[in-house]
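Quick one: YceI family protein from Chryseobacterium panacisoli, structure tokens please.
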Amino acid sequence: MDTKNFKVNNEKSTIDWIGRKITGAHNGTIGVKEGNFRFEDGKPVYGKLVIDTRTIKILDIEDAETNAQFAGHLSSDDFFNSDQFPEAFFEITHAEPGDHNLYYVTGDLTIKGITHPVNTSLQVSTTDNTAALDAKVVVDRTKFNIKFRSANFFTNLGDTLIYNNFDLNIHLVAEAY
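--- reply ---
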């Protein structure tokens, strides 16, 4: 059995997020702190990604003051509580091969110290020394005690409602070690 270990290069890796509300959407980035993956016979069998919740950025708001206020709010207890929970985690627990380097992945996502299973697909391309992994993870924020302006918990929100699901578009570049 051929086993290879890869370490995520956080400088070359990106996570883009999109959050939607009744009147539109916001988007931005959040930083990759570290991660590693293990492949056996060219297939992912284990992986763990650490996300730095203190690095959340908003890309669609140009006014510096408004942007800073929004970033502060996303870091607050209404959302990610980054002071108390500076890291979020995604750990692959199982991967089933599909066609054309696609894998159907089950993993544990931990946000604000709360862990729930998530399913996604993972596109993998590898060379001898590098691996690129791409996934879109749809997260129901209410499962992680992020309830702000959710219709599940509040009524009469009108056009201030924020949808429960947000997307993480993950692109990881990892190097063999």
